[in-house]
Recover the amino acids of this structure.
């Protein structure tokens, strides 16, 4: 580097065209039918994407755009003409000639039963999405009676940032995926045991501080039922002060390192009560680290603080 | 800077599809965790990861190959890699011929860096160097990423040049998935530089000593601009020492605690005639100030933009009202200007941005409306129809090359200023932890379950030799000062290497130990290499 | 990767147990370090057999050596019922109380062990011995069955009754699949060869891969594991698959209650299984194969292990087999107590060192199977048919049986039958003929019900005895052949108790991955209990309607065959039998 170098003074010319990723072969279009209507969609699409592109609202619980579909909740199943069983819309790719029914009697029954199974075994009180599906599919979890096995268990509070209430866990695997290969690659939690006893667990159920957890909170970010929650949210809910109608969400950029993660600040009464990140931002894909997700306190209690960073 | 603008040449998405990654002097797993998500996608997609770091950090533990070099031997290693590539005939002859200049001089300069010599000098086994050279050179796509392990040295710019030379040698720049990427340590280091917060640059990397640029800015601002470049931070401190710099206006920095050799820094700041501190906190620096201007938190109490390590300009937005008395930085600056007799108009972020667009061709296409509608735009973005550039320097692959060719910049190995001695036999290097940040002002307010206070991290071998165990207090002494700190044995450290952070300056002022030897070109201090001794207390 | 291991470090004995499988520690990094996870299950077995449980120090050592994060390791270890995460006595007696053993005095056996060793699962049992109940152990012909697993420096597993090698049809001249059982030394490759063994492989190499596949297609051989998919089409798809490498997997995780045919084949004629696999590998250009054997089959494992070693020595496995330039080798993997691992994609995950959870299909194994690569997966009995096809020709094989069901077929007869055991008949025999072949129902009792196809199969009443035991014949009466189970229940059996046991089996064996099966199997079991106790919610008819809905949801919406068939037996019993709870 030297200041006498000519390019130091003159920006280089622009390339003849903007740089772009290597070209991918264009996806072939396939003809399918959805609920009797013909549709032409790219062959790389899943049934769910095809349905959504046609404005058909397909319920999902274990699916999230930023995670690999695990197709375990089965609430998104659809009927394919000629198939013995129903197919999960979230992971199944469309194929030419597919004849998809999203609202047949079999589909409605399967969705209703899945929701009844969950509703009769899991506390869905902080899962508004699941509750709305229960209404939509007229599921009646109460018809199994009160003497049924559930996943009811004590709340786990073993650190200052997270609360884990597995009475609310529908075992959607999202937290495991976010902690694992889909984002954080820390693998502090996994599914342990099997059958109805299957559960999300650290090794030997040790408390989080004794596990590999690095408190990125990405498990909380993807949890669809409130089983995993910011401790601050949990405490506000316990105190009856959590009020989403009085909250606003503002997108900004994390104040820490130079990666530039978008933070969605959820504020109530001029205080940050929760931090998330949008799924459709290429920088984060919805995932954050401990500082971005939890490191906002310094702006809240400024009178008590002093000193700054260089 | 060899290329005319300072910024990561690739985008994050490209590391997901590259074939070879050299992660050089960076513990991105902890310091840039979300970038590391992208990197790990690349690894999961089959990329081979080389980690060049004195410590076996959590990033290194993901690597296929760890080049555990001695602190401050990066240039020796890079030149050794280059020599091996040339010796094996793996340099990209077409690219060198068409897109570069100065190759012969460069080849001669790296000739002495034989595998034997480099192994001796760096501590990295010859077969590792050879493997790294061959895999990097042969890769279809390859990226080099670095952080402060490269730049917090007395020869920081030379370190970077050594890496740039490798990319030029192999043609791993200017292509999708190939390039050079400094990971920025703070959320707007990139943007600050882009905007001209550098002693020699106007907005958009336009050099202040270029009369044509100056004239453009002077016309727009209706004001005269000094024709000589200014001082960088270390030069400013030296000027204080000489009594040439008598007044200092500090905005959002805490140099008293963040500068190397803290005793020295305090002395210099105290000797000033006039010190202004503008900050959201009453920092230790502010405590020394004659005037303190309380500022709001830029990232959540004001409107504006920041720029990240992939050159993406993104909007920050006001989510909270600032506490009473705290004001937006630009409002304060506009008021100061007004008192000085200049009317900058209304302190509205968008107005300032419009000025940036008018003056910086690289930002011209980024209207606020576009920034709002998109999730940010990458510079250069020349006009409102330009999508922004995914990666830089694709012009180097056009034939003939558009514009000037790029010059190799031969650099020589120059070990850390402070040599190890019988009196100070241990190398102290510094860095960050995942849950903490710099001097801890921002992070100390949240209850991190990972927080464990400052420690002197020692290799198990050194701990045994010194007869100390975990938690035991020791005194760490350098030629400049001493601190008392508990010991923590750390398997990621090799014998002779110790590690501390700068996160807890009120408990343990690590910067009492660090050396303020600085890079004359960039002004960065050699935080990464002090010589220390450990004593039981 | 940056795994974090807490807790105890391994002691020398723990390291030695793990090293016995993984070899001496070598520093591995990056992709190389993460690529050995398929050794996880063997490593866990090594620790379990050495110490009787998975000690924390040994688990930590495995975590570090295979770079498997501790939480994932815990998730895998707790998936399998033969592994214990808590200390237990070194000797564990597994007493089968599943349906076939239930009607042959399993409860008496359990009571005896309880009297001798205290309550089941007692962690501080007397004399270092404890006992526990087990699902079907695959020894239904000698019910009630018992398996002993002894941990220690010289671990040992064995069945309490060692009448191995006995087949009722021993000595009959027309046997094909069973002809060597009890007659040819299963531990001698020479004996196998002098009895005509490996002539089929020689012939296959003369024919060439494409011709071998043509013969198998011509034979109309379909899979004998239960799903009845055409074998030749599978092989053809893998042979043509572009992705490499290809794998051959033998599914020997025979766990369907009432099934024991594969055990007897492996114990009595292990080289035939290996020869079948080798031919499959030759036809599909696979260089590596795995045989995944049920953890409860110690003798079969030993025999197959020994046979593989002997075949290697004889140049029949390894490089350049029979001088043909073709190379192939086989690794044995032991299951660890999980019925679900008999599902082919769950089996792949298990081999890969993951939880044995089934994958969604498609993609099918021929496209993305083991390690995500094109894979032929065949059942043991299927593979033992292969040498016959190669030697006789596909046409000749197809001439046996019916047009829809070709070749010989094995049936596992158990329950109330005079001579329980494994029977070989050409496809086309009726159920009545098979039962008569086995001596009929003892003590002059009447048949109340017959279970075809195992717990995932169908109960039928005695009025259906003339059904031909073919795929099409059973399908015509709404039943299934499944894995060839024929279990007879005489008039004295409390069928409600049997159904409750079937429901408990599926509840225990559900992997828990998908909601319909995880919760549905529990709700099904609870509902049966309510019917049994009479404490119904609403009327009996309401309960039966709900049971139907539960069944339909499991059948329609479950990921894999386990959930899809978990209500079959119960619904068929309610439909076909006269049950007192109705």
């Amino acid at each position: 580097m030297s200041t006498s170098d000519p390019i130091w003074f003159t920006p280089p010319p622009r390339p003849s065209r903007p740089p772009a990723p290597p070209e991918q072969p264009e996806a072939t279009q396939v003809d399918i039918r959805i609920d009797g209507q013909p549709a032409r969609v790219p062959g790389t699409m899943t049934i769910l994407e095809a349905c959504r592109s046609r404005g058909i609202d397909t319920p999902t619980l274990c699916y999230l755009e930023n995670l690999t579909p695990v197709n375990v909740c089965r609430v998104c199943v659809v009927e394919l003409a000629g198939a013995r069983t129903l197919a999960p819309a979230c992971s199944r790719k469309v194929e030419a000639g597919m004849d998809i029914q999203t609202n047949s009697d079999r589909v409605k029954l399967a969705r209703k039963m899945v929701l009844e199974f969950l509703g009769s075994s899991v506390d869905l009180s902080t899962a508004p999405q699941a509750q709305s599906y229960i209404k939509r599919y007229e599921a009646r979890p109460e018809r199994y009676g009160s003497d049924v096995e559930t996943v009811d268990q004590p709340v786990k509070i073993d650190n200052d940032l997270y609360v884990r209430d597995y009475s609310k866990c529908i075992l959607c695997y999202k937290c495991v995926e976010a902690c694992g290969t889909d984002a954080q690659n820390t693998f502090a939690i996994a599914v342990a045991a099997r059958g109805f006893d299957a559960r999300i667990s650290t090794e030997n159920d040790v408390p989080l501080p004794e596990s590999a957890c690095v408190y990125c909170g990405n498990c909380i970010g993807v949890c669809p039922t409130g089983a995993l929650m910011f401790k601050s949210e949990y405490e506000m809910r316990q105190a009856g002060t959590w009020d989403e109608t009085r909250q606003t969400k503002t997108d900004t950029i994390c104040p820490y390192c130079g990666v530039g993660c978008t933070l969605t600040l959820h504020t109530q009464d001029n205080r940050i009560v929760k931090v998330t990140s949008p799924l459709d931002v290429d920088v984060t894909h919805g995932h954050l680290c401990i500082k971005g997700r939890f490191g906002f306190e310094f702006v809240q209690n400024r009178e008590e603080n002093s000193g700054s960073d260089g | 800077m060899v290329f005319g603008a300072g910024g990561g040449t690739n985008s994050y998405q490209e590391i997901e599809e590259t074939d070879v990654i050299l992660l050089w002097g960076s513990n991105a797993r902890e310091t840039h965790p979300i970038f590391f998500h992208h990197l790990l996608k690349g690894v999961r997609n089959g990329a081979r990861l080389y980690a060049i770091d004195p410590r076996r950090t959590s990033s290194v533990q993901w690597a296929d190959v760890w080049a555990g070099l001695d602190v401050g031997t990066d240039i020796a290693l890079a030149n050794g890699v280059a020599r091996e590539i040339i010796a094996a005939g793996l340099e990209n002859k077409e690219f060198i011929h068409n897109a570069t200049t100065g190759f012969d001089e460069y080849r001669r300069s790296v000739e002495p860096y034989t595998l034997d010599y480099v192994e001796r000098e760096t501590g990295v086994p010859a077969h590792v160097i050879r493997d790294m050279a061959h895999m990097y050179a042969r890769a279809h796509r390859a990226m080099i990423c670095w952080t402060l392990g490269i730049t917090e040295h007395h020869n920081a710019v030379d370190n970077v040049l050594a890496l740039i030379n490798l990319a030029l040698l192999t043609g791993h720049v200017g292509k999708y998935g190939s390039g050079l990427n400094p990971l920025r340590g703070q959320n707007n280091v990139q943007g600050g530089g882009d905007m001209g917060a550098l002693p020699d640059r106007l907005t958009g990397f336009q050099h202040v000593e270029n009369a044509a640029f100056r004239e453009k800015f002077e016309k727009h601002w209706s004001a005269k601009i000094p024709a000589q470049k200014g001082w960088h931070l270390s030069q400013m401190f030296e000027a204080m020492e000489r009594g040439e710099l008598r007044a200092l206006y500090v905005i959002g920095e805490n140099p008293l605690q963040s500068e190397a050799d803290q005793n020295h820094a305090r002395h210099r700041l105290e000797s000033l005639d006039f010190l202004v501190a503008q900050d959201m906190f009453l920092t230790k620096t502010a405590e020394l100030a004659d005037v303190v201007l309380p500022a709001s938190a830029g990232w959540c109490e004001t409107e504006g933009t920041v720029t990240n390590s992939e050159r993406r300009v993104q909007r920050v937005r006001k989510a909270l009202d600032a506490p009473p008395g705290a004001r937006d930085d630009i409002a304060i600056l506009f008021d100061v200007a007004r008192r000085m007799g200049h009317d900058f108009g209304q302190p509205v972020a968008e107005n300032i941005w419009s000025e940036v667009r008018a003056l910086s061709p690289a930002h011209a296409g980024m209207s606020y409306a576009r920034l709002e509608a998109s999730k940010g735009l990458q510079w250069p973005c020349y006009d409102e129809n330009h999508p922004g550039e995914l990666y830089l320097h694709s012009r180097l692959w056009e034939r003939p090359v558009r514009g000037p060719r790029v010059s190799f910049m031969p650099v020589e190995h120059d070990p850390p200023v402070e040599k190890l001695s019988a009196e100070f036999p241990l190398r102290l290097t510094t860095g960050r932890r995942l849950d903490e940040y710099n001097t801890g002002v921002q992070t100390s307010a949240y209850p991190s379950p990972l927080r464990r206070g400052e420690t002197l991290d020692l290799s198990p071998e050194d701990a045994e030799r010194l007869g100390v165990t975990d938690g035991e207090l020791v005194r760490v002494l350098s030629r400049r000062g001493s601190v008392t700190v508990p010991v923590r044995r750390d398997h990621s450290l090799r014998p002779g290497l110790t590690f501390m952070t700068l996160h807890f300056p009120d408990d343990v002022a690590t910067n009492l130990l660090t050396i303020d030897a600085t890079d004359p070109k960039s002004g960065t201090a050699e935080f990464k290499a002090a010589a220390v001794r450990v004593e039981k207390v | 990767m940056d795994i974090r291991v807490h807790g105890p470090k391994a002691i020398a004995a723990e390291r030695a147990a793990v090293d016995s499988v993984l070899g001496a520690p070598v520093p591995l990094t990056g992709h190389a370090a993460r690529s050995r996870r398929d050794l996880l299950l063997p490593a866990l077995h090594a620790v379990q057999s050495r110490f009787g449980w998975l000690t924390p120090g040994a688990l930590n050592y495995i975590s570090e050596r295979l770079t498997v994060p501790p939480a994932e390791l815990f998730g895998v270890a707790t998936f399998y019922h033969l592994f214990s995460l808590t200390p237990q006595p070194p000797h564990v007696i597994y007493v089968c109380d599943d349906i076939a053993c239930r009607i042959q005095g399993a409860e008496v056996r359990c009571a005896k062990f309880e009297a001798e060793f205290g309550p089941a699962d007692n962690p501080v049992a007397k004399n270092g011995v404890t006992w526990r109940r087990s699902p079907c152990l695959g020894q239904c012909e000698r019910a009630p069955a018992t398996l002993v697993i002894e941990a220690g420096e010289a671990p040992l597993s064995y069945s309490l009754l060692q009448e191995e090698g006995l087949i009722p049809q021993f000595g009959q001249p027309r046997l094909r699949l069973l002809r060597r059982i009890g007659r040819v030394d299963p531990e001698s490759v020479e004996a196998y060869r002098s009895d005509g063994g490996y002539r089929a492989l020689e012939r296959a190499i003369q024919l060439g891969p494409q011709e071998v596949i043509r013969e198998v297609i011509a034979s109309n051989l379909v899979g004998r594991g239960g799903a009845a998919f055409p074998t030749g089409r599978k092989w053809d798809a893998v042979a043509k698959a572009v992705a490499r490498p290809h794998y051959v997997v033998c599914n020997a995780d025979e766990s369907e209650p009432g099934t024991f045919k594969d055990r007897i084949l492996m114990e009595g004629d292990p080289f035939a299984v290996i020869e079948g696999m080798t031919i499959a590998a030759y036809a599909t250009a696979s260089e590596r194969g795995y045989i995944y054997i049920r953890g409860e089959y110690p003798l079969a494992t030993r025999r197959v292990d020994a046979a593989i070693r002997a075949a290697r020595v004889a140049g029949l496995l390894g490089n350049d087999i029979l001088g043909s330039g073709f190379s192939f080798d086989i690794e044995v993997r032991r299951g660890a107590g999980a019925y679900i691992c008999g599902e082919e994609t769950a089996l792949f995950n298990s081999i890969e060192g993951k939880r044995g959870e089934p994958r969604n299909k498609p993609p099918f194994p021929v496209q993305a199977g083991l390690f995500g690569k094109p894979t032929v997966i065949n059942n043991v009995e299927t593979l033992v048919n292969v040498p016959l096809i190669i030697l006789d020709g596909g046409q000749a094989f197809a001439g046996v049986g019916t047009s829809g069901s070709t070749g010989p077929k094995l049936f596992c007869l158990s329950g109330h039958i005079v001579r329980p055991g494994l029977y070989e008949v050409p496809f086309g025999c009726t159920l009545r003929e098979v039962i008569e072949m086995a001596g009929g129902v003892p003590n002059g009792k009447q048949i109340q019900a017959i279970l075809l196809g195992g717990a995932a199969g169908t109960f039928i009443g005695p009025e259906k005895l003339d059904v031909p035991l073919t795929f099409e014949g059973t399908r015509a009466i709404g039943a299934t052949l499944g894995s060839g189970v024929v279990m007879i229940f005489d008039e004295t059996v409390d069928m409600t108790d049997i159904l409750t046991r079937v429901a408990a089996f599926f509840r225990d064996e559900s992997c828990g991955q998908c909601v319909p099966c995880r919760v549905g199997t529990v709700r099904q079991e609870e509902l049966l209990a309510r019917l049994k106790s009479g404490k119904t919610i609403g009327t009996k008819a309401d309960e039966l309607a709900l049971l139907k809905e539960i069944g339909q949801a499991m059948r329609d919406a479950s990921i894999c065959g386990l959930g899809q068939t978990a209500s079959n037996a119960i619904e068929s019993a309610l439909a076909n039998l006269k049950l007192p709870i109705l």
Notes: The longest helix of chain A spans residues 105-121. Confidence is low (pLDDT under 50) at residues 1-8, 304-310 of chain A.
